[in-house]
């Protein structure tokens, strides 16, 4: 009798209302927001920079693991190429050469310039998804080294349409605890003024990440974002201190 009651209670909790089913089948969102969110797998960009120094005995803070990268395959003209989203930033258009990684991902999207724009029904998009807004009359070309140079282009959004980044790929390092070098390297990869195309653009083999970070003048809005990244850790510390 008890098992029957438990099963009935679970079944009732699993039932989905008719309006919710219809909304799902029609592709309507389950919530509404005035912002678009873009998934950002930040750790892959950090690994790309690390590889520039993997044979450097001065850098003892590498987190590289063998056979860790995954790529998608895409058709470019008559060939099949490895599609890596990091290439979009490394081989970004000349017009965006000085953009930080953070601003580039927030303020741009890429697509086939001949592809018709579609309205997204969700507030969260992947890095490779198309956004309907922006100046479609001007497509910026990737550098020739980009494997999709001839079939994809970059479009810049108006400032009020910029994405909000959803950081995925592991816990971001803390600025007040843990390995300081790892934290400084991560922040430079994401927020370094003037951007980067190679790991060597961020520092020389004989510099430490901390020394380069301390000598870098970051934009005020980026400093605010870095401070906000640590708020979650500070809240958890306060919770633990209160519980103790």
How does this structure look, described?
By secondary structure, the chain is of the alpha/beta class. It is built from 9 helices and 8 strands. It has helices at residues 2-14, 18-25, 42-51, 85-90, 101-107, 180-191, 209-215, 220-229, 231-243; strands at residues 37-41, 72-76, 79-83, 108-111, 124-125, 140-141, 153-156, 164-168. The strands form 3 sheets. It has a 3-stranded parallel beta sheet. Strands 4-7-6 form a 3-stranded antiparallel beta sheet. Strands 2-3 form a two-stranded antiparallel ribbon. A hairpin with a 2-residue loop joins strand 2 (72-76) and strand 3 (79-83). Helix 3 (42-51) packs across helix 6 and helix 6 (180-191) packs across helix 7. It is globular, with a radius of gyration of 22 Å. The two termini are 43 Å apart. The model is unreliable at 130-136 (pLDDT under 50).
């Amino acid at each position: 009798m008890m098992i029957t009651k438990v099963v009935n209670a679970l079944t009732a909790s699993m039932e989905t209302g008719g309006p919710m089913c219809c909304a799902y089948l029609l592709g309507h969102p389950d919530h509404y927001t005035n912002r678009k969110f873009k998934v950002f797998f930040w750790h892959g960009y950090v690994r790309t920079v690390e590889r520039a120094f993997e044979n450097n005995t001065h850098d003892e803070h590498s987190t590289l693991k063998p056979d860790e990268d995954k790529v998608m395959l895409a058709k470019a003209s008559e060939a099949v190429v490895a599609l890596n989203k990091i290439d979009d930033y490394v081989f970004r258009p000349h017009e965006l050469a000085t953009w930080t990684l953070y601003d580039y991902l927030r303020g741009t999207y890429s697509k086939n310039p001949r592809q018709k724009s579609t309205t997204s029904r969700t507030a969260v998009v992947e890095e490779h998804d198309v956004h309907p807004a922006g100046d479609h009359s001007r497509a910026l070309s990737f550098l020739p080294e980009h494997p999709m140079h001839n079939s994809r282009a970059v479009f810049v959004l108006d400032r009020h349409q910029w994405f909000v980044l959803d950081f995925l790929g592991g816990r971001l390092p803390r600025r007040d605890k843990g390995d300081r070098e790892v934290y400084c390297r991560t922040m430079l990869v994401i927020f370094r003024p003037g951007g980067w195309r190679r790991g060597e653009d961020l520092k020389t083999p004989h510099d430490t990440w901390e020394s380069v970070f301390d000598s870098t003048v970051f934009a005020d809005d980026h400093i605010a974002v870095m401070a906000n990244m640590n708020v979650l850790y500070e809240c958890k510390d306060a919770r633990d201190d209160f519980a103790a």
